[in-house]
Amino acid sequence: MYVRTTEVRGDPTRIGDGLRAIREEVFPAVSEMDGCVGMSLLVDRETARCVATTSWQTEDAMQASADLVRPLRDRAERALGATGGSKVHQWEVAVVHRDHAAPDGACARLTWLSGDPGMVDRAIDIYRMVILPQIQEFDGFCSASLMIDREAGRVVGTAAFDSRAAVEASREATAGIRERIVRELGATVDDVEEMEIAFAHLHVPEMA
């Protein structure tokens, strides 16, 4: 399984219109494309930063859709009032584990790491054997995933929780885990974000 992430920052005063356009126009259109499995959208309403993720059955299907999704991306940018364009990245899905579906009001923590390409396989093993068993014990845990770019030496882990309060309650413990893992991998933390799950329909199968 593969996913494409699109990161965009819009105008906070237009976030409602932007989310509506993505949900009602972009999502249905992408879902009709060959090989598309689903889509999710994370948002920070204060900054109007959005991370849209589309999932694909194969790498070929994802690559073939690149030109087709461009006008949809342009439409989303206009609706959100974005002026800086989008940052697009393609990933392989390495780990997925779900306890239960994310309810209304769910939030997620995204952790973006980079390092030597050789650390990626080690990162997958550590995520499965060390990180996942710990975070799934946190109150309000919904699901977790790890996406990788082997060539670039980049990984992004996402942990979803029932509510913003649950994300905040896990913040300190998660920071401790992250510090140990980053040191062991020799990786760099590029960013840590806590975002609202606007909708989650990725439909990626369990890969724990």
Q: Can you give keywords for this protein?
A:
8 strands; 36% helix; 208 residues; 8-stranded antiparallel barrel; Alpha-Beta Plaits; alpha+beta; 6 helices; globular
Description:
The protein is α+β, with helices and mostly antiparallel strands. It has a single domain, classed as Alpha-Beta Plaits (2-Layer Sandwich), CATH 3.30.70.100. It is 36% helix and 37% strand. It contains six helices and eight strands, in the order βαββααββαββααβ. An eight-stranded antiparallel β-barrel has the order 1-3-2-8-5-7-6-4. β2 (36-44) and β3 (49-56) form a beta hairpin. α1 runs antiparallel to α3 and α4 (120-135) runs antiparallel to α6 (171-185). The chain starts with a strand and ends in a 7-residue tail after the last strand.
